[in-house]
Amino acid sequence: MKNIILTGGGTAGHVTPNIALLPGLKERDYEVSYIGSYDGIEKKLIEEFGIPYYGISSGKLRRYFDLKNFTDPLKVIKGYSEAVKLMKQLKPDVLFSKGGFVTVPVVLAAKKCKVPIIIHESDMTPGLANRICTPAATKVCCNFPETLGHLPHGKAVLTGSPIRKELLQGNRQDAIDFCEFPEDRQTIMIIGGSMGAAAINKAVRDILPELLKDFNVVHICGKGKTEPDLNGLPGYAQFEYIKKELSDIFALSDLVISRAGANSICELLSLKKPNILIPLSRAASRGDQILNAHSFERQGFSAVLEEESLTSETLLSKIQEVYASRDSYIAKMSTGSQADPIHKILDLIEECAGK
């Protein structure tokens, strides 16, 4: 049996891809341990799977002035010392790092202990933590062809992002029953992220009479953003959020309208769902969703409607356009280099662990 350490934390997006690898690692007879921060979100998420969890000291690396810049380096140094002890104790054959600042001392400790290192970068351009870690890495996985140009030649591998197995196992009939939909219609799913999106919600509601002529509509609006007057409207189901039933809703959906976070769009790619991406505007973000969305558009995986151009008319037109071309989107997603991320990453892990 080989040993692997997984690391990543700070946000759920730095943890869920690690979780997606767990069944495959078990099938390949790996003993898995996890290193994260003392009390980060990763601790709760990982412990639910019964994986041994080891907390270390962690500090954020900032590119702006903050008084914590004087104390956090000491936390990172302490974390490095703790990670070196764990490497010697656990004796891993390989380390897989999903990113976040907690991974910096873990990766550097693995390098010191001569443990092969695989890093995964979700965004188009590597974040600060992964840029620090890349020189120590054996391989760096990424989601976008454009990212290859930002990484050292010979290390970069276009894999896509691992998606939880259960997300691929939804049941259409369960979703029909849950939403109380007629069975003989196609379904559009709208999901605006965990907080919802007021502009998307408004545009969708403005065109509901037109959409409901031909489609069922599942509308995940965000907390506090449902519209009580629309409850009970035939063919329309609105929710603040969906957790347990999400895989069933995906299975039912024939077209998805979504934000363009890296993990979200990789889920759509793995599920092969024709989609319209409405990325967060530059006014509300650093612009990474816009880069993500246009990369997927160039690859033929998605259509893009930027929020500045979003109206009820442009949204309806884009829906009609994408739905008419849905088979070509599915074909592109089925043959892309990111079509089977879990097996590609597991094969890289096997390759590096054997060194």
UniProtKB/TrEMBL annotation:
Catalytic activity field: di-trans,octa-cis-undecaprenyl diphospho-N-acetyl-alpha-D-muramoyl-L-alanyl-D-glutamyl-meso-2,6-diaminopimeloyl-D-alanyl-D-alanine + UDP-N-acetyl-alpha-D-glucosamine = di-trans,octa-cis-undecaprenyl diphospho-[N-acetyl-alpha-D-glucosaminyl-(1->4)]-N-acetyl-alpha-D-muramoyl-L-alanyl-D-glutamyl-meso-2,6-diaminopimeloyl-D-alanyl-D-alanine + UDP + H(+)
Sample GO molecular function, one term: undecaprenyldiphospho-muramoylpentapeptide beta-N-acetylglucosaminyltransferase activity
Glycosyl transferase family 28 C-terminal domain mapped to chain residues: 187-335
Superkingdom of origin: Bacteria
GO cellular component: plasma membrane
Major localization class: membrane
Keywords associated with the record: Cell cycle, Cell division, Cell membrane, Cell shape, Cell wall biogenesis/degradation, Glycosyltransferase, Membrane, Peptidoglycan synthesis, Transferase
Binding site for UDP-N-acetyl-alpha-D-glucosamine: T11, A12, G13, R164, S194, Q289
Subcellular location: Cell membrane
GO biological process entries: carbohydrate metabolic process; cell division; cell wall organization; peptidoglycan biosynthetic process; regulation of cell shape
Involved pathway(s): Cell wall biogenesis; peptidoglycan biosynthesis
EC number(s) on file: 2.4.1.227
Domain called Glycosyltransferase family 28 N-terminal: residue spans: 4-140
Membrane topology of this protein: Peripheral membrane protein
KW Cell wall biogenesis/degradation (keyword) present: yes
InterPro entries assigned: GlcNAc_MurG, Glyco_trans_28_C, GlycoTrans_28_N
PANTHER family in alphabetical order: UDP-N-ACETYLGLUCOSAMINE--N-ACETYLMURAMYL-(PENTAPEPTIDE) PYROPHOSPHORYL-UNDECAPRENOL N-ACETYLGLUCOSAMINE TRANSFERASE, UDP-N-ACETYLGLUCOSAMINE--N-ACETYLMURAMYL-(PENTAPEPTIDE) PYROPHOSPHORYL-UNDECAPRENOL N-ACETYLGLUCOSAMINE TRANSFERASE 1
UniProt record similarity statement: Belongs to the glycosyltransferase 28 family. MurG subfamily.
Record-linked NCBIfam families: murG, PRK12446.1
Biological role: Cell wall formation. Catalyzes the transfer of a GlcNAc subunit on undecaprenyl-pyrophosphoryl-MurNAc-pentapeptide (lipid intermediate I) to form undecaprenyl-pyrophosphoryl-MurNAc-(pentapeptide)GlcNAc (lipid intermediate II).
The protein's name: UDP-N-acetylglucosamine--N-acetylmuramyl-(pentapeptide) pyrophosphoryl-undecaprenol N-acetylglucosamine transferase
Organism: Anaerobium acetethylicum
